[in-house]
Amino acid sequence: MWTEADDAALREEAMHWLAAWTNDGLDAISYEDLGDFRFRGEKMPLKDRQLGIRKPAQLTAALSITTTFRAPNKERPYDDRLGADGLMRYKWDGDNPEKYTNRGLRAAMQERLPLIWFWGVAPGLYKPIFPVYLVAEERESQQFVVATDGLQNLESTGQDIDEVTKRYVVGETHRRLHQPVFRGLVMRAYGTRCAICTLRHSPLLDAAHIVPDAHQDGVAAVRNGLALCKIHHAAYDSGIIGISPDYTIGVREDVLEEVDGPMLEFGLKGLHGNTLSVLPSRRNERPDKNLLDRQYQRFKTGVVPRRTRFDFVKLPEE
Ligand SMILES: [Zn+2]
C-alpha cells in the first residue's frame, strides 16, 4: 500500500498531465491517449476500461469516476443527476455498499481527496473535470454527492440549502462542469472547427449556444450548440451574423455596406449568403432548426442585444 504522500503525488501529477494534454481543460482526451500517463516511470491507468470507478490497487481511495457517453437524443447526460441543491450525484457501482469500488469512493470522501471526473463526449472520448470532491453520501439513493473545486467545503446538502447558496452552487456547477462538458460535445461533433469559417485552432474556438436563454430547459444538448471561432461567436451573439434554419449565413445590412480591412471583407461580409461550412456528420447532432429560427427571427428584427457603434443604424428589412 502506498503512503498518503504517494497518493497525493499521484493525484497532483495526474491532474497536471491532464491539464497539459487538454490545453488546460479545453480539449477532450481519448481512452487510448490516457494510456500514456506514467507515474514514477510506471504505467498508471487513470480510468478503468470497463468500470465507472477507478480504484488503483495501491490506493485505499478511488482516483477517478466516469460517466459514459450517451447519444444526444437519449437520456440527457447530466440533468437527471442534478440534486435539488444544485450539486451533482454519482451512483454507486451496483448496490453493494461494501464493494471495493464503493469503499474507494467513501475513502476519498472521508479523506477529502481530489478526484478526476471523466465525462464521455463520444464513445472512447472524455472531457476530464478536475478536481472534484465527494462531499456526502446518500445511502438510501445509493449515490455520492459531488462538488467541483471551490465547493468542496460545503458541509450540508439537500433540500434545506438557502437560496443564495443554491444559486451560487448552481452557477459554479454550470461553470466548472456543464460548460466544459457542453464544449466537449460540441467540439467533437464539429471536429474542432468553426462551423462558419472552418478554422481549426482549439484555443480560438468556442462552443456557442444558439439560444442563450435555453439553459433553464436543460438544453445543454449539442443541438443548441455551434462550434464557432471567437470572432464568429461574438458576431453571432451580437446580431452581426444570423444563421437561418436552412443554415444560410446572413450579415447585417449596415455591416455589408461598410468598407474596411480583410477581417471585415473576408471574415464577415464575404460570408453573406454562404451556408455553414461544417456540420456534424450525425444528423441528430446538427443544430436544431427551431432554435436556429428563434435566434434568426431576433437577428432579422434586430432585437439581438447589440453592443456595436452601429446601434443607431436602420435595421435590415425583410
Ligand atoms: Zn469562424
TrEMBL record:
Matches recorded under Pfam families: HNH_2 (PF13391)
HNH nuclease domain sequence ranges: 194-243
InterPro entries linked to this entry: HNH_nuc
Tree of life domain: Bacteria
The name this protein goes by in its record: HNH nuclease domain-containing protein
